[in-house]
Amino acid sequence: MSGLALWPEQASAYAAEVDRLVLGVTVLIVLLSAPVFVLIVAFAVKYRRGRAADRSHQVNRRVGLEVSWAVIPFVLLIGFYVWAARLFFDAHSPPADAIEIQVLAKQWMWKFQHAGGQREINELHVPAGQPVRLTMASQDVIHSLYVPALRLKQDVVPGRYTTLWFNADRPGAYALECAEFCGADHAAMGGHLVVLTPTEYAAWLEKSGVDESLAAQGARLFRSHGCSGCHAAAATVHAPPLEGLFGRPVPLQDGSLVTADEQYIRDSILLPQAQLAAGYPPIMPTFRNVLSEDEVLRLVAYIKSLAADAPERPR
Amino acid sequence: MTHAPAHPIAPNPRNLDDRGLSETPAQHASYLRDGYTLRSWLLTTDHKRVALLYLASVTMFFFVGGAAAALMRFDLLTPEADLLTNEGYNRAFTLHGVIMVWFFLIPSIPNTFGNFLLPLMIGARDLAFPRLNLLSWYVYMLGGLFTLFVLVAGGVDTGWTFYTPLSSMFAHGHVILAATAVFVVGFSSIMTGLNFIVTVHKLRCPGMTWGRLPLFVWSMYATSLILVLATPVLSVALALIAAERLFGLGIFDPALGGDPLLYQHLFWFYSHPAVYIMVLPALGVVSELVAAAARKPVFGYRFVAGSSLAIAAVGFLVWGHHMFVAGQSMYASAVFSFLSLVVAVPSGIKVYNWTATLYKGDISLDPPFLFAMCFICLFVLGGLTGLVLAMLAIDVHVHDTYFVVAHFHYIMVGGTVAAYFGALHYWWPKIVGRMYSLAWGRVGALLIFFGFNLTFFPQFILGYLGMRRRIHVYAPDFQVLNVLSSAGSSILAAAYLLPLLYLFWSLRRGAPAPPNPWGATGLEWTVPSPPPKHNFEVPPVVTRGAYDYGSRHEGRS
Amino acid sequence: MTEGMLREPYATLHQQHQAARLGMHLFLASEVMLFGGLFAVVMVMRILHPHEVVAASERLHMWLGAANTAILLTSSLLVAIAVEVARETRRRATYRYLAGAALLGLLFLALKAFEYGSEYEEGILPGGSAAALSNPVQHQFMNVYLVATGLHAVHVTIGVLLLAGLAGGLAAASLTLPKRIPLVENLGLYWHLVDVIWIFLYPTLYLAR
């Protein structure tokens, strides 16, 4: 980027569509406001005090006119509202085959973890043309992941997981920054989104030193923190089995049904008494002061990876 | 009823049957002459004097907040952090926001011009609760004192929005004191709103029906409804932050089962209506100025009056548009986005009706009216960019960027401050009894218009380019636009200082002002400039509508 | 009407009294918004975490709360009678009823203090042992309970002081009727609102089961 650009690069088709929407809205805005500017100047000149002009038959009220200039701009705007809402809903509907990347925001850096275990700080490498879904957690305050070239941002709120998905189709390096004021070094918190061609991306994955995948790291944590003591198949304690849990509906004690998504798994580890599974005693201890957000993310990755065809355990 | 001649015996000020005699000759001459001691000012219950107390303090805070802005724009001349440290910059923008929002914008028009003009415009001798009015100023000053103390003691660095958990758990500055300062000044807001509402209901002079009220009174009424009903929610939000910091209550702490987003809902439930507190009075001023500029009734009086109430009501329903990317549900966001479009409609009605008012008018380009035109242009741009922000997919990109900063400065500075200066230039002769130089006034208006656009238009572009807000280190590509903006801000600073000079000059050297220098309608223009202490010797009786300029119109006004 | 109680800018006493009453109503509206924010917090909590809220609510002393409700309702009754009696300019009866209401208010505060004390012993108030409540959301409920009832108690205290002051002034004849009828009425309105807020707080907090 050099010179006096008026809008940022477009790193995706979505970004291009947002730009088209903005252009359309701008045209509407000019149409709604230009008459005001023009007429004010024109009237101020034509009807300037001391200047002869026809001021007879002044009208002070025309309900039809007032209603039309109230309603017509509104109706025109509705079209853009629908367009914008549709884009917004699309941006919140990640496809099922998206590459999963975990993001941890903390004062004042971004940590990215690829499923295969590759870790990055402040730089995120993704392949072009493939949907990418970010599951984001914050370790401290509210941050916000913002990539202007994608026209996307999402706040990262402590205590929950938020998600952002995109499909970047133009290779390049784009600014990636924190957009929610988060303290002293907020200005410096950021880096780049690096979009590589698929072959370059494969090479990058190879090259990035990695010991184990996220799920494998999670498995290690699962054992080292004693989770398997209750949740393994051979455990004597009556605890819900975790194989195939992810994505399935879970009946709760109060009769309601929730889906076991990332947030549910995280809350079950950190706030186990919040949503008790039906038919199980409420004896799971909390790991609130034991596990960091980082570690919980890995455990979530592990539980997600557990196969769905595990044998049924007697209840 | 005949006017009694001047009385040689001191009249009993408590005996209102003595009304014609209850004013001493000095009082009868002008409220400014009714006592020269400090005590007569600091213990006054005269709404006009309280208005001047507010005028002085509000001006002082404007320059303190402006100094913070100047520091920021200086630092933003370069992409590196070379003028202020990170903490220093963060404290500067926090203080700029806190002072400008609560100690300048919210009280600016209501507590100066609202206080001064409301009784005059409805034919009353004072507000409903004169002592409460004075108390509101003291409460305001107490909050201001706390804020200045925070400033001197090192500041607070959370942003004026005090988002949790940054403010409740992580910030190091004087958060509790700052929250207390705002909590205290909130009471001043509630007292003012309460006073205005009761005044409009109970103290209208004979013949002053609701349908004959000047549009400024309608907007002050709508503003007062918001002041009374929205401010307490802010009090709760701030009290909860203080409780969390003091007692570790953890209402917003996720580790303790709390929810940071709850704070945002509470905060914006107040703060969105608050922006209408800041703009509705300005809209009321502009209605007055446009009518006087054109010597014509405002087109569509009923729709314009109703639009103030509509803005106040619908304004309570749109707070979620500040939270589209905060983690709010998609469906809630869709509803808030739609309602945000709805709330723009009444503002549009006002702008189009003002434009129609000018048609076949008898238009003067004296300074107040130039400020009104300035307002209309800048408010239209600011308001329409608000519509841009209300569009969901667009907001995802420009939220928390300079686009938002430009949008609200167009409305609050381009709008409210321009209307404030317009009001100052319009009612100055009434308030102090002197005329100022109209030529300099026009220069002031044009300089403000030019300086303002140069400062803030580049920020729309910067925002869409992706420059985030609340940073002083930025990508070098953004520098050119930032330099333009900072250059504009130096012109704007000079433009704001200029009226101080010629207005103060007029106090000594200005020609004495007649009762109605602009040839406008309105009860305030029927009394001398400056008005006597009790405004009206006998209560006026109103028989005509608010903008009855003559017989050249058809249709009822 | 020429006792000098008519103040600027009013033309008649009736207008002045009406203005004072409207002013009090507006102030009460702002108080409703103040507590409204807290009610909204409890409602949201109830919707999101129904079980924890019920569990925490069961730890509150329902019967103490019920007694307090009866006490406040009775004191409101006494204040209503005081207003009626004041309108008949019966000074003695007025200050007796006002004093009775103030005493009941004091009783309310005493019971509340006792209640806070026992909750502190049980460890369920903030600052108590963390083990007493099994769940962070229950802690949150207790936090909101404390803030809401604490804020209400502040309002009760202010009301008690005002009622006692008014009663004392009437007893000492430094305040007289019919001059001060509007004051009795408006203070009555304030006290009724304090009562109404408790009428909503009690079931919201204590009866969530």
Description:
The complex is a heterotrimer of chains A (315), B (557) and C (209). Chain A is an alpha+beta fold and 315 residues long. Chain A is built from seven helices and 13 strands. Chain A has helices spanning 13-46, 63-91, 198-207, 214-224, 227-231, 262-270, 293-305, and strands spanning 58-59, 99-106, 109-114, 119-121, 123-127, 132-138, 143-147, 152-156, 162-166, 172-178, 190-196, 249-251, 257-259. In chain A, a hairpin with a 4-residue loop joins strand 3 (109-114) and strand 4. Chain B is mainly α. Chain C has a single domain, classed as Cytochrome c oxidase, subunit III, four-helix bundle (Four Helix Bundle (Hemerythrin (Met), subunit A), Up-down Bundle), CATH 1.20.120.80. Chain C is built from six helices and no strands. Classes of the chains: A alpha+beta (315), B mainly alpha (557), C mainly alpha (209). At the A-B interface, helix 1, strand 1, helix 2, strand 8 and strand 10 of A face helix 4, helix 6, helix 9, helix 10 and helix 11 of B. Strand 1 of chain A pairs parallel with strand 1 of chain B, so a sheet runs across the interface.
Features:
heterotrimer; A: about 325 residues; alpha+beta; Immunoglobulin-like; Cytochrome Bc1 Complex, Chain D, domain 2; five-stranded mixed sheet; about 35% helix; about 20% strand; elongated; B: about 550 residues; mainly alpha; Cytochrome C Oxidase, Chain A; 16 helices; globular; disordered N terminus; disordered C terminus
